Amino acid sequence: MRVTSVAVTLFRQTGPVTGQATVDVATDGPGPVTVVVTWYTGNSKGEPGTPDGSETFSRSGATRYTLPLTHTFQGQGCWWGVQASTDPAWSGGSSTQQLLTRRGCPVS
């Protein structure tokens, strides 16, 4: 079985310290597949920043999986990020999304 795609979609801030994201995984067989989701906070666009938690999910029995996720951020970074990777690994590596929080970044 191969993972044919993994995508983080619909990443958004839902409260001062909370966010939601959806992870979509497609495979060419019924599994099993393990999905690792890691959350980040940071102060720079395009850089993952500091890990803020992770979750691991195991799925089997289908070829498409959608994981709706919520996270309460502990870090103080003005950028939040979420990354999804799989085992077996997707040939594209992982999928990452990042957003600028409503509080924004300090101006220097």
SSE pattern: EEEEEEE
Largest sheet composition: 4 strands, antiparallel
CATH C-level class is Mainly Beta
Query: Approximately how much helix is present in the residues?
Result: under 10%
The CATH H-level superfamily is Immunoglobulins
How many β-strand runs?
7
Percentage beta strand: over 45%
Poorly predicted runs of 5 or more residues: none
Determine the N-to-C terminus distance: 49 Å
CATH topology: Immunoglobulin-like
CATH architecture: Sandwich
What's the shape? elongated
Number of domains: 1
Q: Compute the gyration radius: what is it?
A: 15 Å
Give the strand order of the largest sheet, numbering strands 1, 2, ... along the chain: 4-3-6-7
Mean pLDDT: 94
**How many helix segments?**
0
Compile the SSE list and pairings:
Layout lengths: L2 E11 L4 E10 L5 E10 L7 E10 L4 E9 L6 E9 L7 E6 L8
